[in-house]
Each structure stands twice: as structure tokens, then as C-alpha cells.
Amino acid sequence: MGDIKVGVIGTGFSAMAHIEALQRVPSVQVVAVASSRLSHAEEAAARYRIPMYYGDAMELIHDPDIDVVHNCTPNHLHYTFNKAALLAGKHVLSEKPLSVTVEESDELQKLAREKGLVAGVAFIYRHYPLVEEIKQQIASRTYGKPHYVLGGYLQDWLLYETDYNWRMDSRLNGPSRAVADIGSHWCDTVQYVLGTRIVSVFADLGIVHPVRFKPKDEQATFTNAAPKPEDCERVEVDTEDFGSILVRFEDGTKGVFCISQVSPGRKNKLYFEISAEKGALRWDQEEANRLWIGSRDVPNQIQMRDASLMSSQAASITHYPGGHEEGWPDALKNLLLDYYSLIGKRKARKTDETSSKFATFNQACGVMRIVEAVLQSHERQRWVDV
Ligand code: NAI
Ligand code: SOE
What we know:
Oligomer: single chain
Structural class: alpha/beta
CATH architecture of the largest domain: 2-Layer Sandwich
Radius of gyration: 21 Å
Number of helices: 11
Order of helices and strands: EHEHEHEHEHEHEHHEEEEEEEEEHHEHE
CATH class of the largest domain: Alpha Beta
Shape: globular
Bound molecules: 1,4-dihydronicotinamide adenine dinucleotide, alpha-L-sorbopyranose
Strand content: 15-25%
CATH superfamily of the largest domain: Dihydrodipicolinate Reductase, domain 2
Number of strands: 18
Largest sheet: 9 strands, mixed
């Protein structure tokens, strides 16, 4: 059993993924789970053999046995639970976005720094082996200096007016939906890879369904079947379904990305293509084990994820031989291995903290500033500095 004791708040998609990934990290043990519904926490505890469960997240946060809190709740609860956990002296791994406003995120990153706690955000995509490989190739200038980046993050799960989720309610989600939910991942990943920050944005956002059908029964899902009108209420939606965003980076690189939760056939397509002096590199989350290398003078290449062909940094987060496909759950495992390695060093009072790769509260606060600048740019229809 691991000696770092973890409590997970939430029992939904993200929380279950965290619990499963935590079981792949040698030094930790999940000792408690909390949900707003006690029965959900009890079910999750039984399924994953977790000894404690709570119907109130604050009880988990104040459980003296717990060293680290994972906050896997809807966006509007990130600030409250992250803050309470830091004040209780717990390390925190929060789901993204860090909060729903820049002010809240700023307060959280300051608090984490003051308390000296390990505070990370689950920006998972930087933890894929081939994303790390691209980062290393860019840093070593294998293809020269980058000048242009394009890409996007496309999904289709909110295509129909009958697709509904708490993310449609801006009181629970915050003022930005597609940008904060998936655009935040794109910005974090590309900033990580390029090693430079987005400093200016020009955005054009859109809403396909200003009115959606919300199931009266909270547990119902209409993903595959058309709902009956009597089972729904019509609700107004004021957050974006899609958007196109021009970006400028601090080092002079320019770029563009699109985000959409209403693009048929695109399930979880986070992709980016970096053009540099002597070549281009492209990665697509839906084909995560392939790296496209574009050339002007020789045929283009596809590099498969294979530790023996990659940099030591990328090889170190590759766990299976080439051809044994790794994906989203493996990237989450990598994030946790990285995060808990730092907590382990703290426990052992080792001072070398420089090699951590996970997104800190400070970096996630920077992403919140981009999200806010995007909303302002769309409203004012002009460039906005981050
Ligand atoms: P979900 O709706 O599947 O789960 C939310 C969970 O929060 C539910 O179990 C609910 O019971 C719990 N909850 C709600 N209010 C609570 C309260 N007061 N106390 C305790 N628990 C409470 O939502 P999902 O998809 O898991 O999203 C949760 C968060 O995770 C979001 O912020 C989302 O952005 C993030 N997320 C991040 C991913 C990533 O790639 N890093 C992947 C999926 C989600
Ligand atoms: C829903 O859009 C979602 O689950 C996001 O919340 C995640 O962060 C993303 O990784 C996948 O899609």
C-alpha cells in the first residue's frame, strides 16, 4: 500500500478516471471519495475498495488522514473546494479550468504558493509521450525556429439541441464553455510544447443552440434517443458552442485554432501543427501514437511512438513497446506519476523540484487569463492582450 493518502471529490467521468489512474501509481492509496449524493460515494467506494466515503466534500477535505485532495467536481466548485483544501494544508490536484474567473484563480495560485503546497491542474494532454517528443524537438531546434502554429479541439457530443449537461448552465460552468472546457487544453498543450506564452488573441465565437432541451430527470441522458418534449424543459444557453481564435505568442510565433463541441464526427480531436524553418510537426489526440513530420525537400514521415526512437524525456513516459497503443488513461497516469513524484520528494525532504512537468496553479491561472481575453475579444471584436 502506498504511503501518500488521497481523497477524491466527485464520482463522475473525471473522478472515476482519476481513481483508476491513481491505482496505477505505486506510492499512493485512495482512502476516501466524496459526492454530493452519499449513495454515489458509497457505490464508488465499494467498486474501487475505498475505505471511506462522504456525502459532504468538506468532511473529506478535513479528514486528518488525507494528504492530497483531487477536485473532480463541476467548474463552479473548483474554487471553493481547492481553497478549503489548501487552507486545510492539503496538496491539491484540481480539474480544469482552475476556477471560473481570473480573480479566483489568482487567489488560489497565491494561496498555494504561500502555503508551500503542491498544487496542480489536470491539463492531461502535455503528458502524452509524442507531445513530449515534439516539445524536445522544438527546444533542440531540430527543425529550426517555429513561426506558425495551427490547430484546434473539436468534439460532437453537444451537436443536437437535445444534448444537455451541467456545462450548459453558466452558473455551474462559468461564463465560457467551449473555450474554457477544451480551448484551455489546447492553449496549455501548445504553450507547453512551444515553451512560450500566448500574449494576444482575436476571437469570434458562436452559439448553435441558444435554447436547449434539459431533461427534467437529472439522471436521464438523451445521448442516443430523441427525448419526449414532456420529459424536458426548454432552457436558454448563453455560452459558446464553437469559436475561431487568432493568437500571438511572446516569442513572435503566430497561430490560429478552432474549438467546437458541435462538429459531427469529431469526438475528441485536439490537434496542432507547428511549422518551423526546416520542417513541420503535427500531432492529433485521436491518433495519439503517430507524429507527422512534414518536409519540403524529402517525403513526409510518420513516426510511431516507440521509446527506442524518441528523446530520453519522451521515452521515460512511454510504458509499452511500440505498436501497443497508449492513450488518454495512460496520459493521466503520466500526469499522476509526475505529480506524486514531487510530493514524494517533498516527503523525503529532497530539494530538486525542477523536473516536474505538470501544470501548476500559476500556469493554469495564465490559461484562465487567455480564456477571459478570448471572451473580451469576441465581445469587442478586436485584439485583446492577455
Ligand atoms: P460529471 O458530471 O461526470 O461529474 C461531476 C461530479 O461532481 C459528480 O460525481 C457529482 O456528484 C460531483 N459533485 C457535484 N457537486 C458536488 C458537491 N457539492 N460535492 C461533491 N461532489 C459534487 O463531470 P465531469 O465530466 O467528471 O467533469 C468534472 C470536472 O472535470 C470538470 O471541471 C471538467 O472540466 C473536468 N474534466 C476534465 C477532464 C480532463 O481531461 N482533464 C476530463 C473530463 C472532465
Ligand atoms: C468534455 O468536453 C470533456 O470531457 C472535457 O471536460 C475534458 O476536459 C476533455 O478532455 C474531454 O472533453
